Amino acid sequence: MSLASEHIGSAWGFKEELRKLQVSLTKIQAVIHDAEKRQISDESVKTWLLELKDVAYEADNVLDEFGYEILHQKVESQKRKKVRSFFSPSNPIVFPFKMGNKIRSINQSLDRIKTNVALLGLRESSNPIPKIGLDRETDSFIDDSEVVVRGDDVLKIVNLLIGANNQRVISVIPIVGMAGLGKTTIAKLVYNHELVKKHFDVQMWVCVSDNFDVKRILREILEILDNNCSGLENKNAILHRLQKELQGKRYLLILDDVWNEDHEKWDSLRSSLLGVNQNNGNNILVTTRSDNVAQIMETSHRHKLEKLSEDE
Q1: From edge to edge, which strands make up the β-sheet containing 202-209?
Q2: How far is the C-alpha of 73 from the C-alpha of 166, rounded, in Å?
Q3: Which of 27, 43, 110, 286 is the most exposed place for a label (fewest CB within 10 A)?
Q4: Which of 265, 306, 303, 260 is nearest to 171 (CA)?
Q5: Residue-wise over 257-278: b if at least 16 C-beta within 10 A, else e?
Q6: CB under 8 Å to 184, separation ≥6 — which residues?
Q7: CA 198, CA 201: separation in Å to the nearest integer?
Q8: Beta bridge partners of 204
Q9: Alpha-carbon gap, residue 165 to 291, rounded angstroms
Q10: pLDDT band at 292 (very low <50, low <70, confident <90, very high)
Q11: Average confidence (pLDDT) over 204-225
């Protein structure tokens, strides 16, 4: 079989492999609650969780990459005049081949993990979807050539931000949706939108991920505003410097990939931000997969992303 035939054959099995991945993750998530309780006293369960975390991180990245590619391919007709390299990530042959290999590898790992579920005696839980600790890192940069089919979503969020209630010191807008729908990409496009840049005096991007550490988030915000503050560890000192940097300014803060459902942690961050800047018209844009995260933030608007239909 030629290499080209292998590429095409890989593309044929791509959708089925993706379905298998999603089913496997759902089944494994059902036993994570039991595993997290038992890992304290059972080293085998602890090892199982560590292996799952590694595979889940890979799967999460693949789902996000796949979701963005759906968005990208939707507008391919708008870019017909541009020459696309055979080795481009969006090449209709190379991309399925590459993704097919990635997903098959992850599925093989998940098969081993699922086998150990029975061996370890892990039980399913009816609790809400538990968290698999993921240490991710994102940034606000986006290529000028990147185009997204969810242009309507971007414009709606931009309008929410610049038309927000200026009688409030902080307005919070969450973008909520499952993995792979392009939440971070949409947030980047909003962050870099010309109307947004003109509206806010200061813009800050913090990838929160699984670790909602209030002092870490505040310190990262400060480091964006002042590169000479990287050594500060005392929270009170951080807040004093933030107050100096944000005084008299209207800001936009992006909190990307938020998982925290602890109301007290969110209240602590919000109180700190209210303390350093009392100007009206500040906004926090949050990306999250969890409706619970959006609820505890007491938001006035919530932007829910839905799955793209097959036609889209």
Answers
A1: 202-209, 251-258, 282-288, 170-176, 303-304
A2: 38
A3: 43
A4: 303
A5: bbbbbeeeebebbbebbeebbe
A6: 64, 138, 256, 257, 287
A7: 7
A8: 253
A9: 23
A10: confident
A11: 91
- Tokens 């929410």 appear where? 160
Q: Are 90 and 72 in contact, with CB atoms under 8 Å apart?
A: yes
**Do 286 and 175 meet the contact criterion of CB atoms below 8 Å apart?**
yes
pLDDT higher than threshold 60 for residue 296? yes
Q: What is the pLDDT of residues 255-265, one digit of tens each?
A: 998 988 889 99
What string of H, E and C letters represents the secondary structure of the chain?
CCHHHHHHHHHHCHHHHHHHHHHHHHHHHHHHHHHHHHCCCCHHHHHHHHHHHHHHHHHHHHHHHHHHHHHHHHCHHHHCCCCCCCCCCCCCCHHHHHHHHHHHHHHHHHHHHHHHHHHHCCCCCCCCCCCCCCCCCCCCCCCCCCCCCCHHHHHHHHHHHHCCCCCCCEEEEEEECCCCCCHHHHHHHHHCCHHHHHHCCEEEEEEEECCCCHHHHHHHHHHHHCHHHCCCCCHHHHHHHHHHHHCCCCEEEEEEEECCCCHHHHHHHHHHHHHHCCCCCEEEEEEECCHHHHHHCCCCCCEECCCCCCCC
Other beta carbons less than 10 A from residue 192's beta carbon: 15
Angle at which helices 14-38 and 43-74 cross, to 10°: 150
110 close to 21: Cβ distance less than 8 angstroms: yes
Quote the pTM value.
0.61
Determine contact, residues 270/282, Cβ cutoff 8 Å.
no
